[in-house]
Amino acid sequence: MRRKSLSGAACPIARTLDVIGDWWSLLIVRDALRGMRRFGEFEKSLGVSKNILTQRLRALVSQGILERAAAADGGAYREYHLTAKGRGLFQVLVALGQWGQENVSGPAGRRMILVDRKHRQPVRKLEVRAGDGRLLAPGETMMARLD
Amino acid sequence: MRRKSLSGAACPIARTLDVIGDWWSLLIVRDALRGMRRFGEFEKSLGVSKNILTQRLRALVSQGILERAAAADGGAYREYHLTAKGRGLFQVLVALGQWGQENVSGPAGRRMILVDRKHRQPVRKLEVRAGDGRLLAPGETMMARLD
Question: Is the CB of B92 less than 8 angstroms away from the CB of A90?
């Protein structure tokens, strides 16, 4: 099924979904943020077919979210490194994870949460704030023209 | 193509994508956060077929993200209202929008950004912070077992 393209949308949410709006892409970025770099690591983590993984990695490279690099250990394998644009998806993944923690029950006994590596304490809930620091509820915001 | 189910995943990001991991669902929630409530409003905003919109609204209701209610004006149409679970997706949408603003160029002359309704100033960039308030980069966080 061909999806409708949202690449020219005025709304930045729609444009983002056009670029990373599929599961595998976001889960690959999640794993890359956790330090994974090799095809085999992503394959094992995601349990996805080689075909789909190859397609998604290629798409992420062409979108400038990942870049290919020689292996750090000098081995024959190429690695996939996040670009600054890719690392910028951190907030998106934290937001998705916090919503899942609160709203979608996971398998008892092996649920994971995001913690601060230093103190092993849960990361704070993301807050939407105005320029002057006020906490904003959805109704206190609106979309406006940038230009 | 049948997607692999991630509903039982240990990772809360994966569970979230299992529930709202498609474009239309997130764009419907975006519009509902902006105050839209009627089928016809969503249809006009999204430019989507009645078939797909009906499916997605039904899925969002069955997931407890939207609920059906009688029209506020006493008219014959049913409305779709966000539940607390649905309003909780605000941070996800803000994160997606901010990434799009920074990384995916929109159509000149009609780009939109999220602003504080009171002062019409851009909303602050979302920040990931530790319990003690420290700003956290991706490498300063990790996934840990909750139970």
Answer: no
What is chain B's mean pLDDT, rounded? 89
Question: What is the ipTM, given to two decimal places?
Answer: 0.91
Comparing B38 with A112, the larger pLDDT belongs to B38
Which of A3, A22, A53, A99 is the best mutation test for B, with the most CBs of B within 10 A?
A99
Q: Is the pLDDT of residue A146 over 90?
A: no
Among B73, B74, B81, B75, which residue's Cα sits nearest to residue B57?
B81
Query: Across the interface, do B96 and A92 touch by the CB < 8 Å criterion?
Result: yes
pLDDT, tens only, A54-96: 999 999 999 999 999 988 787 777 899 999 999 999 999 999 9
* Contact present, A91 and B98 (Cβ < 8 Å): yes
A113 forms beta bridges with B144
Contacts of B114 in chain A (CB under 8 A): 141-144
